[in-house]
Fold these 2 entries.
Entry 1:
Amino acid sequence: MATARTTRHRVLVVGAGFGGLAVARSLRRTEVDVTLVDQHNFHTFQPLLYQVATAGLSAEDVAHQIRGIVRVHGNVRFRMGRVSDFDLDRRRVLLDDGEALSYDSLVLAAGAVYGDYGIPGVLEHAFMLKSLHEAVDLRSHIIRQFEAAALDERASDEGRLTFAIAGAGPTGVEMAGALVELFAVVRKDYPELAGTRPRVVLIEPTGAVLPPYTPATRAYAERTLRRRGVEVRLETAVRRVAPEWIELGDGEVLSTRTLIWAAGVRAHPLTERLGVPLGPGGRVPVSAHLHLPDRPEVFVIGDAAGVLGDDGRPHPQVAQVAIQMGKHVGRTILERLRGSTSAPFRYRDRGQMAIIGRSAGVAELSRQLGGGRFGGFLGWLAWLFVHLIYLPGHQNRVNAMATWIYNFFTYDRHARLVLDRREQAAEAVRTATAPRPGAAGDGVGGDGTEVREPVFR
Ligand SMILES: Cc1cc2nc3c(=O)[nH]c(=O)nc-3n(C[C@H](O)[C@H](O)[C@H](O)COP(=O)(O)OP(=O)(O)OC[C@H]3O[C@@H](n4cnc5c(N)ncnc54)[C@H](O)[C@@H]3O)c2cc1C
């Protein structure tokens, strides 16, 4: 990519998630040149990843190619690449392919990763739900458990049909509700498993599900989950994780091959490369204008930023915060260039919502919006409506809406496909090792070179 100096102000945005895209949109068709860098060529709509993992939506429905989003902006270019380091003194960002991109203003919007709180085995054995690939892998793994159980009736005793979720925040609750619904469909696919009941165990160290919500909402969510068959374990933490079991805080060992980790995030490790002391959760302490205290040209936004709200607590790591921060930084850059002073960032909290499952959602408006609360069918409809509005891409919206309507009336989950990377890798090895015409024999390719054994069996 050409990085020749132009006279126009160059804004480099790292990360095309909610925050990064909001910066690009707020600077579209203005006097600056924007380069948006992301390791993927698509934006992932993370709030719907759990639906991909539970076969409710296809992977393509919750992602949108970034070039398709920015091509109408005129002054915004996309560069696919993984950022590995920063040279803030020379105003350069380094990519792992060796290229360096120069900037006048830098916005770091690389999001967050799941934190393991130092619990042994989490990083090695738990399933995380942060990327599209992880969602597809988890879905494939879940279906593989059913395939294995169908072959061997002892499999459910070995924990193949026990699915544990750590963390009963919105992601854990949504995942638990959706798994129960998936199992209702999957059960019909496996007559061999008649009489077996898959388990969903939701594990939460505090005393309630959906901890940030009001007591009435928490009680409704817990009641609904239990009624639908989820085993809710409160005041219990995961202490150790192994491939075929997990150990809980009270010493109980639960046989399971599936622990889904929804127990909190920490800022993306790229924040460590900024060379500044980090705050709790690895978040970067930034000024009220969202830049590094001694580098006004370096902004950090979204899940990676540590800014305190009026209540003295850090803003939640949610999409609305990232979007509002992105818009604010876009405005700040333009105001600076135009010689005016910008106002400090203030988060306008609109409230929070989560879905428990079919016809059961919860929505709480913020105090600024009147503090109303509604649950059940209305909460569910509100959740669907808001997510459809924010899902990028007209086709994605049409697909998601059509699929939801179809699923609602048929109770189906159409994307029950095993498409994980493990299977793709095995397929590639099998293809590479298949005898070709003229092959000299087992273990030797047609050209006489040695062929490696398949890695996966
Ligand atoms: C499963 C799940 C469900 C969620 N549900 C909700 C919800 O219902 N409502 C809600 O408000 N919030 C929800 N969130 C949180 C919300 O998604 C985040 O708060 C939001 O995405 C943060 O935006 P961001 O711009 O900071 O980072 P992200 O949106 O995470 O974007 C970060 C971008 O940076 C890119 N990137 C990372 N590292 C590099 C690198 N080295 N080089 C180049 N690019 C890089 C990534 O590919 C990604 O595109 C959920 C999160 C998850 C994981």
Entry 2:
Amino acid sequence: VPDRPVDLAGAYERDGVVAPVSVLTSAEADRIRSEWDRCVRLHGHPRPGDRQMYNLHREVGVIDEIARHPRLLDVVERIIGEDILLLGSRVICKEPGTGDFIPWHQDVSDRNRLTPPVQVTAWYAVDDSTVANGAVEVIPGSHRSGMRARVPTSSDGNLLRADEANDVGDEEAARAVPIELRAGQASLHHGFVLHRSGPNRSADRRCAFVLRFVPPRVMQGPGVFDLRSSAVVVRGVDRTR
Ligand SMILES: O=C(O)CCC(=O)C(=O)O
């Protein structure tokens, strides 16, 4: 596991993204992938047509294990402080040769109403993630212009809900960079950074555990799906409870 950049919090502030964060060695990453594969066989995740797979950390041990991994949380801590809540998780699995995609969006929006609007998303690569299999692309620095208006989208293969996308012009989109990761690595992204991912045109699966971390002072609502009251403390304490 290589050393992390020294000024990691500075890079996060500047770019809204930090990558790669080496969480596991390749042997450790193989174990996580095998466990996930075993779980898919046993429990039928992902079930045909079930592309959502939200909050499986409550039932799938390896997702919880990554969400609590010290090498990941040491980096998250440098960004949001020593008390850390796991607000939610999602598994995003793009099977080979499928058209599923994620349009430009921000993870923190008026849809999930986080106050203050602070969230770090950790994207853990279960499989290698490449441009060919639909790696996440990020527009560095786009978080600095804050929350954008959402625009309706609906299209076959869109893995987000129809009201989660943002409009991004060609000029801004041209600044996007792909975040390629080896299995066992993660990227961290800011709640306002614009990101998307394209279809998996390769012969290899591209599976990720997406973990949403917030400091305990972040509250949610009203009038939205409530993740805050079921958030779990993964490091430190939640003094608000
Ligand atoms: O896995 C993807 O392709 C997109 C992930 C994403 O949108 C996120 O991590 O917030």
